[in-house]
Amino acid sequence: MEQYTNFAKVYDLFMDNVPYDKWIEQIKDILHKENIFDGLICDLGCGTGTITEGLSNIGYDMIGIDNSYDMLDIAMEKKYASGNDILYLCQDMREFELYGTVRAVISRCDSLNYIQSLSELKEVFSLVNNYLDPKGVFIFDMNTIHKYQDILGENTFAEVREQASFIWENTYDIEERINEYDLNLFIRLEDDTYKRFEERHVQRAYTFDEIVSAIESSKMSLERYMDADTYGEISENTERILFIAREKGK
User: Fold this and answer.
1) What is the pLDDT of residues 23-47, one digit of tens each?
2) Strands 178-188, 194-204: parallel, antiparallel or unpaired by DSSP?
3) Does the keyword Cytoplasm apply (predicted)?
4) 20 to 30 Å CA-CA from 109: which of 22, 33, 71, 245?
């Protein structure tokens, strides 16, 4: 089963609890501290383009990359509605290509957890480094082992809306640190009936040291990190870590 096909139709509906405005403001603050007030920014794993649009609205020239045509269809609808000049590319982040370098790369909402091996994560980070301007920054988050093992793993979540409903079942392999999401979607059609769709999503949890090793192997330097929800120090209860890495000279 492909990921983010039918789910794309209702993705924004079920993500309305995500503090995108807060994230966009935080990204802007980080960029400003790095003296990046304008120029090209790449949103890696951009999904339906909510963050991409937000950064475009405050003056950045945006490129959005995602491997789901369906998610990018929604992003394009937003682009036409806003009139923002955003370039969207349907590419796998493990082998993405840009036409030149960018001042920063961002990747939020645990997109990088979809990379299922450390060697592939290192490949992604190497590509990021390759396309960063000298001393450019990489801002990304990743879910923690704690989140998969203690919050998501072996649990089932469900939500009912008028337009759509879902049942989300999680299976977590502690040894492999792989979490499988079995997603059953019930989407309302024009004739007021509901149609069932199924998707399977697979993500991997990485240790903090593994993520640091991926940054260092790509020739970037880790500048700082924080709890992505509290913006404070990370702890055993941290569910998502926000990292800021820098290109340090190719």
Assistant:
1) 999 999 999 999 999 999 999 999 9
2) antiparallel
3) no
4) 33
The tens digit of pLDDT for each residue in 202-239 reads 999 999 999 999 999 999 999 999 999 999 999 999 99
Give the whole-angstrom CA distance, residue 119 versus residue 135.
24
CA–CA distance, 227 with 217 (Å, rounded to integer): 23
Q: Does 120 lie in the same domain as 71?
A: yes
Q: Same structural domain for residues 135 and 73? A: yes
Q: Which domain holds residue 160?
A: 147-204
110 with 30, same domain: the answer is yes
Q: What is the C-alpha to C-alpha distance for residues 117 and 176, in angstroms, rounded to an integer?
A: 10
CA 99 to chain centre: 22
- Judge if 123 and 220 occupy the same domain: yes
Cα–Cα distance for residue pair 45/40, rounded to 1 Å: 16
Specify whether 23 is located in the same domain as 123.
yes
pTM of the model: 0.94
